[in-house]
Structure prediction request, 353 residues.
Amino acid sequence: MLRVGVVGCGYWGPNLIRNFTQLPDSEVAACSDLNEGRLDRMRTLYPRVETTRDYTELLARDDIAAIIIATPPQTHFEVATKALEAGKHVFVEKPLATSSRDCELLLGAAKKRGLTLMVGHTFVFTAAVNKIKELIKSGELGEIFYINTTRVNLGIFQESINVVWDLAPHDISIMNYILDSMPEEVCAHGHPYIRQKVEDVAFLNVKYPGNIMAHVHVSWLNPNKIRKTTVVGSKKMLVYDDVSSLEKIRIYDKGVTVQPHYDTFGEFQLSYRFGDIFIPKLDDSEPLKVACQHFIHCIEKDAVPRSSGQHGLDVVRVIEAANESLRNSGVRVPLHSGAAASPQSDSSGRKKK
Ligand SMILES: NC(=O)c1ccc[n+]([C@@H]2O[C@H](COP(=O)([O-])OP(=O)(O)OC[C@H]3O[C@@H](n4cnc5c(N)ncnc54)[C@H](O)[C@@H]3O)[C@@H](O)[C@H]2O)c1
Prediction:
């Protein structure tokens, strides 16, 4: 039985408390939030879970083996560092931290003490994303040409991080996972339409090895909630719609073939294939529940999590590079040798005063 303490009981933290409470191999011993109103709410929902405004009380308890962090991103580094230093395994919500340097320090702290560090990149625990990974790996889609993703809705406007830090970690995490690689470079454009300095709309162009292009549109300023990813391969194409409850993935047996023989340029021929559309049946387990189970499993078996600290660091490196590009009129930022934040910007992507 893994006893955990949860820090942060705002919008997302209660989902983690619910899952660790419901799983047979874990229980929530205590939770913490700075806001007494949120703690009141937790006491109503979970009368047996102790509450405190001071999260360091959870770190001092011997009966708590792991700390679950669902506080705002700019606090992750401090809370996770203290938790690791106190000898606790850590599950930290995405992004792992707000700079790659901080992520590296967290990885080092976990490694030094032999502790599990896992990042809440929930999408790598969805049946849909794992199906896409399987389809790519098996070669069913053929050679991957490009990926287009849209993650937009109205709000929720964040105060301390821009939309790239808030939403794009999901897309980068998904793409790094399904392609099993790290981008080579990124360019980004964005604009703060509603509030000064905090971009609410952004477009990222991300280049993966093998000439795989990816485009990511993230926005808090859109009339509809859209969570759509299109993967175009040489043999087949697919559309993943995370908002759809029953038909999350549609695999299109569509494609274009260049005829191998033609006599003159005028006879250059393409043949188009319009085949069947296949909708695979997917497991409908709650991804967060799968992630929480996986965290418990990794601690028990001393296994590397699917969304490991390294995965979290890779995502942050791309987000950091995207913010550097955004601050410099969309310049290409290579990722080969690490993408340090530009001198003009701090690690959260906001301009230094
Ligand atoms: N995996 C996902 O799909 C997903 C979805 C939403 C949010 N998130 C992540 O979850 C985290 C929290 O997001 P949210 O939307 O719940 O934010 P939120 O602002 O609603 O909640 C954060 C809570 O943390 C509390 N807090 C801040 N500092 C604290 C401290 N030192 N000690 C104790 N409590 C503290 C705040 O009082 C607040 O109640 C973020 O990292 C976010 O990126 C992940």
